[in-house]
Design a protein that fits this description.
heterodimer; A: alpha+beta; 5-stranded mixed β-sheet; B: alpha+beta; Alpha-Beta Plaits; Helix Hairpins; 5 domains; 6-stranded mixed β-sheet; 26 helices; 49% helix; 22% strand
């Protein structure tokens, strides 16, 4: 990763390296999703179950005439199953290779700017997390998007 | 002159001319005296030459030029068409197709000169003019004679390469030109070449490769390669190092002072220019003869069109426009959107029992339905192309197979004008080719065996295409030996694919279907006995990927027929909407036979599986609630609603809770994330925005 290289020798560029993250709640933890991957955020809607697929898929929804699969991060992280509330949202992520996919979150809180020096890359938090951002007093676990949506190996 | 913008037209038209030539040459083989055919071949070769010249494809031009010359002689009755000549002409076509494929991939014709073919063509011409052929030769002999040529003088050097050579000489190194010939039976040419380079580079530096080092690595060369090397060592030492590598036939070379090389290069260039000029002159002359307009590069498209109009003897069909398939896809998507919007209007008009429900509102809705349906049909039709473009290469293929296998056979085709969606047509070629090969190779008996059995000596292979409802059927068959079902049964048991007990209860049809199982068809021994099986699993999966299926029917001693069933369209279908539990599913109408109400007590059990008896047929029952893991919302009713679906001759009864009616649905993919086990072939968006899944009934049977 280029990020490590920057840590060593280029402080100025590093300070400019500010990324925007959407902060969401899953359970009682805050997670950050790199805004570059976010295509859309939609309210909870009826999800059509698809039989015989990976258990972490809730089903599919229709979004502007396209079919988008929706997965449960909770199921993938072995957390208690989702409970839909008024605050529940589906974050539509768009990945180059495989197209759009929806991820259910309990709540969308805000958008924060994090520069690389506010991110602790060293704590080992499991395979879905690639760092922990410090925003004021809050800690935000930053999701590694590709690991989150890909098939567990 | 930038002609790249004409490249696509060139590729299309060259393909057309090649097909035309192939057809004509086949025709000529049957009737060697037919003047019209001969004229047509002459014209097609001539057009090809003109086009290739315009586009700057010199090698292709050269080859077609000589082909044309041969036909000039045939036309003037100096030369008779012989079967060896036909073979040679087919070789020419293959060579031109090789060029064309290179051009498609890299916009360049490649470096294959096809000298051998050209020499044979010239010998024909020489013979026609009463001269002795330059060399009386078989292909092998001519290859033999080329060993030992100093091919390094043929390398066309670029300026930078010349500079390198000059530089090396200035620095006091010797520059050697070398051509290395590898033994013809060598299997790892690239490896040998690599070893030669390694040995030589220990003594000096290789400055110029021919072919390029990349091509050599990829084994894109015949049995020789040339290079220039700069070295301080003596020539004997360098060539000795190269010779020391095993499987090297011989190494020729010498020290080449730059002066000598420069002269040679210049001479080669002059010669090339002269040859090109001669060809141009010839082109012009020939074109005047046929009264075609002189080829202007910028008017290439136009010119080729004219040429084609003269060439193709078939009546000129409708005026056409070439359209990028992506534009059609976009149009199709918009029509899909329109249909979804229309469906939602229909569902509103049905649901609202309100005041604004006037007569005219209903009428408008109905009008809209008619328009969207016919719009959909029109767009569909635009995407349809005849399967001709795929199947018309088959007669040639069968002819070649017939020669290769030494079996007499004839291909009968019908329904070439049957139309299919472009995307399907593009992908159906390989599976069909496979089935035809199968018929020719394994299906048909040897001629002697056929005579013994009292069959006509010449085997027949047929390919029939026709439309049946919403499907297109393509049958490929033969009147050969048929599949020995018992042998397949035995082998299947031996190989543990099925148990002895299973084998006893399995029908003949089920046994034959075992040939489509991948692991099974891999078994070489089965293939030898049954005469079938290699790669049939691939055929099946290719066809299923297109939403179709394949069946086989066979009669021992009488032949085998494969029936390929393909959907007319991929994007929009009529479907029956059903409710199971509280979920909605769509079943494509094309696969539904009928719908029955079956009293529960009519359900019988065969091998612990539910079946029903319907009009003399035993039909297995599929409980969709179980297959699809749906929670049951209602008690088992007294009578079941059963949708009977069919694939070819097999049927299954799908139990549903309720029928919703027929609807036009737009098929959407589920995307790449979900690993579906094929039961669901896609999803569709209903009028009210709800999503319903589409069942693939083929998987349920």
């Amino acid at each position: 990763m280029g990020v490590n290289g920057m840590n060593n020798n280029n402080v100025e560029v590093m300070e400019k390296e500010v990324k925007q993250y959407i902060v969401v709640m899953i359970g009682n933890e805050q997670y950050g999703i790199d805004i570059r991957y976010v295509d859309n955020i939609v309210r909870m809607q009826q999800i059509t179950r698809v039989p015989k697929v990976q258990s972490y898929f809730k089903g599919i929804i229709s979004l502007r005439g396209e079919i988008v699969p929706v997965m449960s991060i909770r199921r993938k992280m072995d957390l208690p199953d989702d409970e839909y509330t008024n605050a529940s949202r589906i974050i539509i992520l768009k990945l180059e290779e495989k197209g759009a996919i929806g991820v259910i979150v309990d709540e969308v809180k805000e958008v924060v700017n994090l520069s690389e020096d506010q991110i602790d890359r060293n704590t080992n938090r499991g395979r879905f997390i690639n760092g922990v951002g410090k925003h004021g007093e809050e800690l935000i676990s930053l999701l590694e998007i590709s690991a989150t949506v890909e098939e567990p190996v | 002159m930038d002609v790249s913008q004409y490249l696509e037209i060139f590729i299309d038209e060259t393909s057309e001319h090649l097909q035309n030539l192939s057809d004509c040459i086949m025709e000529l083989e049957r009737d060697p005296e037919h003047m019209d055919t001969i004229n047509e071949i002459f014209r097609a070769a001539h057009s090809l030459k003109g086009m290739a010249g315009t586009m700057g494809f010199k090698r292709m031009q050269h080859l077609t030029h000589d082909m044309e010359n041969v036909f000039q002689e045939v036309r003037s009755d100096k030369l008779k068409v012989t079967s060896s000549m036909i073979d040679l002409l087919f070789k020419c076509l293959d060579a031109i197709e090789g060029y064309l494929n290179n051009i498609k991939e890299s916009s360049d014709e490649g470096t294959e000169d096809n000298e051998l073919i050209i020499r044979e063509l010239n010998n024909l011409i020489a013979a026609a003019n009463g001269e002795q052929p330059e060399e009386v030769e078989t292909p092998a002999a001519s290859e033999e004679s080329s060993v030992g040529e100093k091919k390094y003088f043929e390398i066309a050097l670029s300026e930078s390469e010349k500079d390198k050579l000059r530089e090396a000489e200035k620095n006091g190194h010797h520059v050697y030109g070398m051509t290395v010939y590898i033994q013809k039976d060598c299997l790892l040419k690239a490896a040998r070449a690599f070893l030669v380079f390694k040995a030589v580079e220990e003594l000096g530096q290789i400055l110029v490769y021919n072919p390029s080092s990349q091509d050599i690595e990829d084994e894109k060369f015949d049995f020789d390669f040339s290079f220039f090397v700069s070295s301080e060592a003596s020539f004997e030492k360098v060539s000795g190092a190269a010779k020391a590598v095993s499987e090297i036939e011989c190494v020729v070379g010498e020290e080449v002072p730059y002066e000598v090389l420069a002269v040679k290069q210049e001479k080669a260039e002059v010669e090339a220019a002269a040859a090109a000029a001669a060809v141009t002159a010839e082109t012009t002359k020939a074109q005047e003869q046929t009264q075609a307009p002189k080829a202007q590069p910028a008017a290439a498209a136009n010119n080729n069109n004219n040429a084609r109009k003269q060439t193709v003897s078939k009546p000129v069909t409708n005026r056409t426009v070439r359209v990028d398939i992506e534009k059609l896809d976009a149009l199709m998507n918009q029509v899909s959107e329109l249909i979804i919007a229309k469906n939602s209007l229909v569902s509103i008009s049905g649901a609202e029992s309100g005041d604004f429900q006037s007569q005219s509102f209903h009428e408008q809705i109905e009008g809209l339905e008619r328009i969207t349906t016919s719009l959909h049909e029109s767009v569909m039709k635009v995407r349809m192309v005849p399967i001709e473009s795929v199947v018309n290469k088959f007669p040639r293929m069968i002819r070649d197979l017939s020669r290769k296998l030494n079996k007499k056979m004839e291909l009968y085709m019908s329904g070439e004008d049957t139309e299919l969606d472009r995307t399907v047509v593009d992908q159906i070629g390989d599976p069909l080719q496979h089935l035809l090969r199968n018929s020719a190779d394994h299906g048909l008996e040897d001629n002697a065996v056929r005579l013994e059995k009292g069959k006509p000596e010449v085997g027949s292979i047929f390919l029939k295409a026709f439309q049946e409802g919403n499907n297109v059927i393509i049958q490929v068959g033969d009147d050969g030996a048929g599949i020995d079902v018992e042998a397949v049964r035995q082998k299947a048991v031996e190989r543990g694919v099925i148990t002895q007990e299973q084998s006893e209860t399995m029908s003949k049809k089920d046994i034959v279907n075992l040939l489509f199982i991948p692991s099974f068809s891999m078994a070489k021994k089965v293939t030898d006995i049954s005469g079938r099986g290699v790669g049939l699993d691939v055929v099946k999966s290719n066809i299923e990927a297109l939403g179709g299926d394949v069946e086989v029917k066979t009669e021992l001693g009488e032949g085998t027929t494969f029936t390929v069933r393909l959907p007319l369209t991929l994007a929009i279908v009529q479907a029956l909407m059903v409710v199971i539990g509280d979920e909605k599913y769509a079943i494509p109408i094309g696969s539904i036979a009928n719908i029955e109400d079956i009293p529960v007590e009519d359900i019988k059990y065969v091998e612990a599986k539910e079946v029903i008896h319907l009009r003399g047929k035993v039909i297995p029952i599929v409980r969709l609630t179980e297959v699809l893991d749906i929670e049951k919302t209602q008690e088992e009713p007294e009578s079941l609603t059963v949708v009977i679906v069919q694939k070819g001759e097999s049927q299954a009864g799908l139990v549903v809770d309720r029928l919703m009616g027929q609807q036009e649905i737009v098929i959407k993919s589920l995307g790449k994330y979900m690993n579906n086990n094929k039961i669901i072939s896609g999803a569709t968006i209903l009028g009210d925005g709800e999503v319903a899944l589409i069942l693939d009934v083929n998987v349920l049977m």
